[in-house]
Structures are given as structure tokens and as C-alpha cells.
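G., the chain you wanted modeled:
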Amino acid sequence: MALSSPGTAGSTAATDSAQAPGPTRGLLPLLLVGNTVMYALYIGVPGFVLALQVANIDPANKVSNMTIVSGVSAIFATLFNPIAGALSDRSGRRNPWILGGGIGALVVMALLGSVNTVLLVTIIWCLGQAAMNFYQAALTSVVPDRIPLASRGKASAAVGLGIPIGSTIGALVGAAFSDSYRTGYLVFGALVAATAVLFTTCAKEERRPGKAPLPLKEQFKSFASALANHDFRWAFIGRALLVLGYFAVLGFQLYILQDHTKLPAGLKPEAAAAILTMVNSAASVVSTVLGGWLSDKYNRRKLFVGVSALLAALAMVFPAASTSWTAMLLFGAVNGLGFGCYMAVDTALVTMVLPKSEDAARDMGILNVANAGPQIAAPFVAGLIVQLSGGYTALFLAAAVLSVLGALAVRPIRTVR
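Predicted structure as C-alpha cells:
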């Protein structure tokens, strides 16, 4: 698909990438698997095993402690993603960083399950975020590196499907090991490490020209220059707002089901969380596939991104208005439809507004700050809202506002329809 204004820097980068892609055979299923295990860990660890570990250490202060763990680790997630992308660009390789991040995640998960203080949990989870951000920054760069523009919607759908499928796996594994979080950590780490080995073995890459190292001051300037690009900046803002709203609720889902929702008799919160995740994931799979395909067909990215973000906002109204289990099921289904389509189409949109093709990994790493950072920062923000308001209704309303703002943020983008 052609961009609206082919003379812009963003479209030049995308066109360069599309004109000289690397080998693409078999990439889509590998991207699906690679992103699936990543999101399984991102959902299953903080949403289940980490939350249960923190609650087990100090049940009376679980919300405030989880807020501290999540807030501190958010700083590490924010710092490491663009750094990892820049290192990948400099080396001209993606696979070594994917493999190193995956193996590192396994080591950190093994350590995380063996500690029993909030301080050590915080430190080691920060190391886990660093490892996963090296993995994510390199994996995300495969799409702009090697997928032609006309197939970006399909590729982004493959990436986006990793969210609902990974969320389901994360919830099921997390719930299954709710009585043995140490084993749960090992399972999540092993999944990521095994997938990293699979991806780097099967997805052979052509070495790209490396970049000469820059002084530290120049590196910081280069990071800032990416956000100086008009369209990339608005794509960054929109993604950050939507993801923050989504994960502010998702990160506290277990506590919401424990303390806010009136569950049917006999249904435990852990089982309810797994059910809710599966409902969300089923809806997200449908909207991800349709959104990616339709956005390719009609060459309309902004429209699909905006509407899907508004749908995610609408979903927050149901549990804000009612504490019933039915309201939470409606929330899960509608939110899945909105978020699934958003992530599929927005990923395609982002690859079309990258400032420079030679800095693709760095810039996707910067964008991943808007993706990974809010995922980890969300419980910190959510914890403050819950503590200040005394409940979860205000959290749902705040998340709805963030989703609406995320929808509006794509309007100023000029080079993509």
C-alpha cells in the first residue's frame, strides 16, 4: 500500500524497508509464536504469579507493594527498550538479541521465584523487564525490516494475535500455578527461551549494515530526534494512552475480581480471571484478523485505529456501572474486540511512519516504550487511583478517558490514511 505523502521522512523509511526486505518465508507464524510467548509472560507474570507472590509476602499491603514493584520496574522498561533497539541497529543483527533476551528471561524467572522480600522481587523483576525488552525490541523490528508495505496489515495481525493467544496462555498457566508460583515463573521463562531458540534457528536473517557507535550525548539526541518527527510522535502518544488504559485495568484484574466483582457462588477469582481472559482473547482474535485484513484492503489505518480505541473505551463503562459478573464478561468481550483490532492496525500504521529505515530497531524500540512502559507502569497508576478513590469504579472511568484520548491522538497523523 502506498502512503498518502510519499515525500515525507516517515514514508521514505517505510518505502525503503519495503523495497529491500530480507527473507520472509515462514516469518508470519514465527512472529505469531514469538509475540505469543512474550505476551504470555507479560500477562501471566504480573497478572498472576507476581501478584500472588507479592500478596503472599505481605497480604495486608498487597496493593501498595504491587504499586511499588510495578512503578520501579517501569523505569527500567522505559530505559532498556530504545537502548536495546539502538544496539541491535548498531550490530546489524536481530537474532542474537532475541536469543539473548529469551535466555536471560529464563535465568531471571528462576531467580524471581526464589526470593521472599518485596525489595528483591522489585530488583529481580526489573532485570526481567530488561531481558524481555531486549527480546521485544529486536523481535518488533522484524516487521519493518523484512515485510513489504502491502503485507504490513497481515504481518501486524500475526503480531497482534500474539496478544489474545498469549493472554489466554498467560492466564491459564498463571491460574494453574497459583499454588506454586515458583514453578509458574519457570514455565513462563522456559516458554520464552524455547521460542527464542526456535525463532533464531528458523528465521535466518541477512546481516544488515551496522552503524558506527555514537557518543552518549549524541545517542540521547538521536532518541529525541525520532519523537521530533510529527507523525511518529502522535503514533507514540496514541499507543501510550491506549495501552496505559488497557493495562491499568488488566494489571489489577485479579484484585478487581477479588474485591469489586460479585462472582457466582463457587467461582474463585483465579478461575474467573482465566475465564475472562479467554472471553477477551476469543473476541480479540476475531477483531485482529478482520482488522488487519480490512485495513490492507481499504488502505485505511487511522479509521480502524480510532474506532477500535473508542470501542475499548466503551467496554470500561460496563464494570464501572455494575459490579456483576455479567458486566465483567461484557467488558471482556467488548474490550477484546476493540483492543485486538487496535493493536493489529496500529502496528501497521506505526511501521509506515518510522522516521528512518536505518534506525528501524531504535525507533521501534522507542515506540515499544509506549507499549511496554505503560504495561508495567499501569499498576502503579492504577494503584494510586484505587487508593485515592477507595475502589475500582474510578479506575474503569480513568481507563475509558485514556482510551478516548488514544483514539483522538491518531487524527493529526498526516502521511497515513
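Residues 27-57 form the longest helix (31 residues).

Shout if anything looks off.
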